[in-house]
Structure formats: structure tokens, C-alpha cells
Amino acid sequence: MIITPLTVDRIPDLEKLLALGEPYIRLRGSSDYWLYATLFANTCPLAIIDGEVVGSVIAFRSQVDPSEIYLQDVMTHPSHRRTGITRALVEEVDRQGTLWGCRRLFLTSEPENHAAHGAWLAMGFSNVPGDTTEQGVSVIYDYKGPGKHRAVYERWIGA
């Protein structure tokens, strides 16, 4: 497996991969992915196996609090899950965060995405205490806007 930053020429392959993540991942426009590849490539690693994009993380360093990196979309091809790809990609973002002196990785997930919940806990993330608990997952009301309740996870960089 090769871990490499997102580049413009890999955008079509990334879009094909991310389309497999619905309903939890919403495909964005190609110009958004151009932006990620051009301005945020250091925190948007891809996993490549035999020339195929099999995993990706789209993440951004906060401009409001530069000590934080938000993981927006994390996806591993269904036929490659449970093989360490997601962990390797998150560790790559963590490594970049360490170089920048960042302290925290965080992300959100739909409360009903139980597979993601298990994966985040296994990678050392904590489910941030919220307003309620749904099926064992702490949820913050309206985290991403009215009616958009989310489970929030965090991990200290370098942990």
C-alpha cells in the first residue's frame, strides 16, 4: 500500500471511491476536490493498492484554531475494509498534525453509523459527551446545524 497526498489527476478515482460511502458521505463537486488537492493535500491522503485508490481521508487544519484538524470524509473501499487502511490514513494526518504542532484530531459521524463508531474507538478516538445517548453513542444536538445531530469524536495528536 502506498499512502500519497491527493492530487488533481486522482480526483476521478477519489470520486468513484467516495460514491460508495453514501449515505454517510455526500459526494461534492469536482471543483471542491480540486480545492482539496491544491490547498489541503497535506491532510488529504489517499491509499493506493495496485494503482487503485482504495482509501481516503479529506481533512483540514482549522483556521479558527490551528491546533485542530477536522476529518471531514474518511472512506475505505468495502472490499479492503478491516485491513488497516483507515488507520494508516488517519496516522498520516496525525503525523502531519505533529509536524505543524497541532494537538487535536476530531470528526463527526451520524449516530446510527455503528461501524464507524467502533472504528473510531478502536483507533483511540473518544466519543465526546453530548446532549443525549442514542444506542450507546453520545450525540450533540444540532452540531452541524438545526436538526443535524452528530456523534463527535476526538483524539489527541501523537497519542
UniProtKB/TrEMBL annotation:
The record, for Pfam families, names: Acetyltransf_1 (PF00583)
Pinpoint the N-acetyltransferase domain residues.
1-146
Q: By its UniProt entry, which SUPFAM superfamilies does this protein fall under?
A: Acyl-CoA N-acyltransferases (Nat)
What are the entry keywords?
Transferase
Transferase found in the keyword field: yes
Q: Which GO terms describe its molecular function?
A: acyltransferase activity, transferring groups other than amino-acyl groups
Which InterPro entries does the record match to this protein? Acyl_CoA_acyltransferase (IPR016181), GNAT_dom (IPR000182)
The protein's superkingdom reads: Bacteria
This one is known as GNAT family N-acetyltransferase
Q: Give the organism the record lists.
A: Micromonospora aurantiaca
